[in-house]
Write a structure and sequence with these properties.
The protein has 410 residues and is of the alpha+beta class. The protein is built from 15 helices and 9 strands. The chain has helices spanning 2-15, 29-37, 62-69, 93-100, 159-165, 221-235, 240-262, 270-275, 277-288, 296-303, 307-318, 322-339, 344-350, 356-367, 371-380; strands at residues 73-83, 87-89, 106-122, 128-131, 134-138, 144-147, 172-177, 182-193, 208-212. Strands 1, 2, 3, 4, 5, 6, 7, 8 and 9 form a 9-stranded mixed sheet that branches. A hairpin with a 5-residue loop joins strand 3 and strand 4. Helix 2 (29-37) packs antiparallel against helix 3. The chain starts with a helix and ends in a 30-residue tail after the last helix.
Length: 410
C-alpha cells in the first residue's frame, strides 16, 4: 500500500499536477494544477487584448483564477496526537502570520481528524463535533479551541513558545494530554493568501466550514489526503514539505467546492454567483479576458440574457454591477503583477488600460494609494512570501478551565 501511495505521489509530481507548469511561481502551483485538470481551455487573446471577430469567447475557471491571483499557499503542517483530557487553543492570527508567511495578509487554519474525535469551536461559540474522516476549516483563523470535551479552555501561547519552533523542519509533531490511550489524532495546518485589494472568495466564506464524512460514492477524497499526508509526515523525505503544502492547498480547494455545491438555492454571494448559469458564465468570461473592453451589452450577448436581466441578476448575487466587479478584479490582478516586479506601464497594458495615467488614477481611486506607493509598501512588508512554520496551538502547559489539566509534550 505504501509503495502504491508513494507511486501515486511521484506520478502526480512528474506530471506537473502538484508542481505546476514550468515557469510558474511557487505560489501559483496549485492553481496551475486546477487549470490543467479543469478541462477549461484558456481564452485566446490577441496582444492588444482584443479578439478576432470570428472567435467565440471562452470561459475561465473563476475560482481557480481567484486562488491563483491571491496566491493561496500552504504554509505549515503539523501531526498531532492527543490523550484525554486535552485542550489546545490557537494563538491569535496576528501572532502567527508573521512567523508563517511574512507579508501575507490572511490566514486560514484547518484540522483534519484522522482517528477518534474532538470538539472544535471559535471562542465564545458553540462546540462542533469533528469525527474521524472530517475536516474543520476556520476561514478567518479566528481564535479557536480544540478539545477532548466541550467547554474546555487553555492558556494562549506567548511569543516565546511560537519562536521556539519557528524554522523547524515540517511536519512538526505535537503530543497533548496525559498517559492514557490516544483519543484523537489530527493533521493540522495553515494556509495564507492575499486579502487586498480584492478577494471575492474570502469576502463570502463563512467563518467555519466542516466537511468530509459520508457523501455517496466519493467520500474517500479526504481519506486519500490523510494517507498521503501521514505517509509524507512519517517518511520526512526530500521535498516532503513542498508536497505537504500542496496537499493542504488541494484539500482546502476541495472543501470550498463541496461548500459551493451544498449552498441553498436562495443563497447570495460570490460563490452562489459561480453556481448560477448566467452570472457564473459572466464571471467566467471576465476572468478569462479581463483586459478586454467589456460592456454590459457585450457581456449580456455572450451570456445569452438581456442587458437589464443580467445586470439585475449579477448585482443581486454578487453585490455589485458587472463592470464594477471587473474594475476591482483588474486592480487585484494589477496588485499581483506589481508585487511580482512588473513596471506600471506593463501592468496598465496587461489589464486593459490605454495609459499609465489612466491606470494610476483608477488604482488610486479603488485601492486608496497610487500603484507606486502600493508596491513600496508591499516590498517593505516582506513580499514575496517567505515560508516559515509556526505551531498550530499553544505548546506550553495548558490549564483546562473545566476539568483536568492538559499538558502537551513534544
Amino acid at each position: 500500500m505504501r509503495k502504491r501511495l508513494r507511486g501515486a505521489v511521484i506520478a502526480l509530481l512528474q506530471s506537473g499536477l502538484f508542481l505546476g507548469q514550468m515557469g510558474l511561481k511557487a505560489n501559483d502551483q496549485t492553481s496551475a494544477m486546477l487549470d490543467i485538470t479543469s478541462g477549461i481551455g484558456e481564452a485566446s487573446v490577441w496582444p492588444n487584448g482584443q479578439r478576432s471577430s470570428s472567435e467565440k469567447p471562452m470561459g475561465a475557471d473563476a475560482l481557480s483564477e481567484v486562488l491563483k491571483t491571491v496566491r493561496l499557499t500552504g504554509a505549515a503542517f503539523f501531526d498531532v496526537a492527543a490523550k484525554a483530557p486535552w485542550v489546545a487553543e490557537s494563538p491569535a492570527r496576528e501572532m502567527i502570520l508573521p512567523k508563517i508567511l511574512p507579508g501575507a495578509e490572511h490566514l486560514i487554519a484547518y484540522h483534519v481528524v484522522t482517528e477518534g474525535r474532538c470538539f472544535a469551536n471559535i471562542i465564545g461559540e458553540a462546540p462542533i463535533t469533528v469525527e474521524a474522516g472530517e475536516v474543520i476549516v476556520f476561514t478567518k483563523c479566528d481564535p479557536h479551541v480544540l478539545a477532548s470535551s466541550p467547554g474546555m479552555r487553555a492558556d494562549p501561547a506567548g511569543p516565546n513558545a511560537i519562536d521556539a519552533i519557528a524554522g523547524s523542519q515540517l511536519p512538526f509533531f505535537v503530543n497533548y494530554g496525559g498517559d492514557g490511550p490516544y483519543s484523537a489524532k489530527l493533521v493540522c495546518g495553515y494556509l495564507a493568501c492575499d486579502a487586498r485589494p480584492f478577494n471575492p472568495l474570502l469576502d463570502h466564506l463563512p467563518p467555519v466550514i466542516k466537511s468530509g464524512g459520508s457523501r455517496g460514492g466519493d467520500a474517500p477524497w479526504l481519506g486519500q489526503f490523510m494517507r498521503f499526508a501521514v505517509m509524507e509526515s512519517a517518511d520526512k523525505r526530500a521535498g516532503g514539505e513542498s508536497v505537504l503544502a500542496r496537499l493542504s492547498e488541494l484539500m482546502f480547494i476541495e472543501v470550498i467546492r463541496r461548500h459551493l455545491e451544498a449552498l441553498p438555492p436562495e443563497r447570495a454571494g460570490w460563490l452562489a454567483g459561480l453556481r448560477d448559469p448566467f452570472v457564473g458564465k459572466a464571471l467566467s468570461l471576465m476572468h478569462a479576458d479581463p483586459a478586454r473592453g467589456w460592456t454590459i451589452d457585450e457581456l449580456a450577448k455572450d451570456v445569452g440574457q438581456s442587458r437589464s436581466v443580467l445586470a439585475e441578476r449579477f448585482a443581486s448575487l454578487i453585490g455589485s454591477p458587472p463592470m464594477h466587479y471587473l474594475a476591482h478584479w483588474r486592480m487585484q490582478m494589477a496588485a499581483g503583477l506589481l508585487s511580482g516586479g512588473a513596471n506600471i506601464a506593463t501592468v496598465a497594458a496587461e489589464i486593459g488600460y490605454g495609459s499609465e495615467a489612466s491606470f494610476s488614477r483608477a488604482f488610486k481611486k479603488m485601492v486608496g494609494v497610487p500603484p507606486s506607493t502600493w508596491n513600496r509598501r508591499r516590498q517593505s512588508h516582506g513580499q514575496p512570501f517567505d515560508q516559515r512554520p509556526a505551531p498550530p496551538f499553544a505548546l506550553t502547559a495548558k490549564r483546562a478551565k473545566r476539568s483536568g489539566v492538559a499538558k502537551p509534550s513534544a
